[in-house]
């Protein structure tokens, strides 16, 4: 059983936004972990993130103007640079001296990697976030390339349920019922070896015994895959079929206690797959929405606060998620190195 209380991880990178959705000279208002955040990109292409509240009268900065360099509040024209420093207060007259350093807006570290924007969510009470030491999970084999296909869906649930639902190895025959996947296939025994990895765990590269119909478009070669999970909610699957490589990056980001965004990106080198994008897009969205719909149904039962009865081995990854998350939170609070509770293990289940 698990009775984990809901809490957000701090001092860690979260997926923020696809980079293409933030144009030079533009700004976007978002919410992460219940905090209002303003994301903006300067005319030169630099991305920055500030708390979306003016320290003067609490009007959202996103309601104001952005000249491609500084943000101006719509209420009294206070201006802030990309570091959150106040640079101008128009109401002041020439002989009125004021220490502008007193008026700061919280700045969040942001990085752009493989076409995606990531934001570092430090402790709430920190105005200046420390330089993060941990690495952002990267899609292997694709270098600095951006994704080829993107889908985003909003899951109306707490982040844990979205994460656990997406990593669940036994739900596929019942949730993902589609002709192009594994419709009406008899259950087979799965035997997989797992290893600890940085802030998570990895299912070792292995051959796929019952090949889904969608993978057969690649032709010859036995499909192989490796799946890695990283905190706070990142899943990276690397599929190899002969000379073809396809990677799936799924990032789960908590917006509030009851709202979670799930971004799924596909990366490939195969040129002819680009021609199939009009067909792949709706199939991918439908596949992800099937996970969303079952999570919506789950909320009906969760409102009664039941204990969740997790079994071995099919639910072991869910157990690991809660254990890794708890250990990370404790290590951060105690100011000590993270110790991964996951050990090498072979798991068996039917799906």
Notable characteristics:
8-stranded antiparallel sheet, 351 residues, Cholesterol_7-desaturase, 2 domains, Naphthalene 1,2-dioxygenase Alpha Subunit, Chain A, domain 1, 4-stranded antiparallel sheet, globular, alpha+beta, 4 helices, Rieske Iron-sulfur Protein, oxidoreductase, 17% helix, metal ion binding, single chain
Order of helices and strands: EEEEEEEEEEEEHHEEEEEEHHE
Fraction in beta strands: 25-35%
> Radius of gyration in whole Å, from Cα?
22 Å
Q: What number of domains?
A: 2
Structural class: alpha+beta
Q: Widest sheet: strand order?
A: 12-18-17-16-15-14-13-19
**What's the CATH class of the largest domain, please?**
Alpha Beta
The count of β-strands is: 19
CATH names the topology of the largest domain as Naphthalene 1,2-dioxygenase Alpha Subunit, Chain A, domain 1
Counted by DSSP, the helix tally is: 4
Mean pLDDT: 91
In the CATH hierarchy, what is the architecture of the largest domain at level 2?
A: Alpha-Beta Complex
Largest sheet: 8 strands, antiparallel
Taking the alpha carbons of the first and last residues, their distance comes to 22 Å
Helix proportion range:
10-25%
Shape: globular
Task: Explain what you see.
The strands form four sheets. This protein has an eight-stranded antiparallel sheet with strand order 12-18-17-16-15-14-13-19, covered by helices on one side. A four-stranded antiparallel sheet has the order 2-3-4-9, with no helix packed on it. It has a four-stranded antiparallel sheet with strand order 5-6-7-8, with no helix packed on it. With 351 residues, the protein is α+β, with helices and mostly antiparallel strands. The protein is built from four helices and 19 strands. The chain has two domains: 12-121, Rieske [2Fe-2S] iron-sulphur domain (Rieske Iron-sulfur Protein); 149-350, Naphthalene 1,2-dioxygenase Alpha Subunit, Chain A, domain 1 (Alpha-Beta Complex), CATH 3.90.380. It is 17% helix and 32% strand. It has helices at 159-167, 172-175, 277-302, 316-334, and strands at 12-18, 27-32, 35-41, 47-51, 65-66, 71-72, 79-80, 86-88, 107-108, 110-113, 116-121, 149-155, 189-197, 200-207, 224-230, 234-241, 244-256, 259-268, 345-350. The chain is globular and about 80 Å long. α1 crosses α4 (316-334). This is Rieske (2Fe-2S) iron-sulfur domain protein. One of its GO terms (molecular function) is metal ion binding. Pfam families: Rieske, VanA_C. Keywords: 2Fe-2S, Iron, Iron-sulfur, Metal-binding, Oxidoreductase. Residues 14-119 form the Rieske domain.
């Amino acid at each position: 059983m698990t009775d984990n209380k809901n809490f957000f991880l701090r001092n860690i990178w979260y997926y923020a936004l696809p980079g293409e959705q933030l144009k030079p000279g533009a700004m976007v208002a978002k919410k992460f972990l219940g905090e209002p955040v303003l994301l903006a990109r300067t005319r030169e292409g630099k991305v920055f993130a500030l708390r979306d509240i003016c320290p003067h009268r609490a009007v959202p900065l996103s309601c104001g103007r952005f000249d491609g360099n500084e943000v101006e509040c719509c209420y009294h024209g206070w201006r802030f640079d990309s570091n959150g420093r106040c640079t101008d207060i128009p109401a002041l007259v020439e002989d009125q001296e004021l220490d502008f350093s007193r008026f700061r807006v919280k700045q969040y570290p942001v990085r752009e990697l493989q076409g995606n924007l990531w934001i570092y969510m430090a402790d709430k009470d920190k105005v200046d976030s420390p330089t993060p030491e941990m690495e952002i999970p990267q899609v292997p084999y694709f270098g600095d390339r951006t994704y080829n296909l993107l889908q985003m869906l909003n899951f109306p649930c707490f982040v844990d349920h979205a994460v656990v639902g997406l990593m669940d190895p036994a739900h596929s025959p019942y949730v993902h019922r589609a002709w192009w996947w594994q419709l009406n296939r008899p259950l087979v025994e799965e035997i997989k070896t797992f290893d600890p990895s940085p802030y998570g765990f990895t299912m070792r590269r292995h051959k796929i015994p019952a090949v889904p119909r969608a993978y057969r478009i690649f032709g010859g070669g036995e499909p192989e895959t490796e799946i890695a999970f990283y905190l706070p909610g990142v899943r990276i699957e690397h599929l190899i079929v002969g000379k073809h490589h396809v990677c799936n990056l799924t990032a789960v980001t908590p917006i509030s206690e009851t709202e979670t965004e799930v971004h799924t990106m596909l990366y490939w080198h195969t040129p002819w797959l680009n021609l199939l994008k009009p067909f792949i897009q709706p199939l991918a969205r439908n596949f992800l929405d099937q996970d969303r719909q079952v999570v919506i149904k789950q909320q009906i039962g969760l409102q009664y606060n039941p204990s969740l009865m997790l079994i071995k081995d099919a639910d072991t990854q869910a157990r690991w998620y809660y254990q890794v998350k708890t250990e990370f939170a404790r290590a951060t609070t105690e100011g000590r190195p993270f110790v991964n509770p996951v050990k090498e293990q072979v798991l068996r289940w039917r799906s």
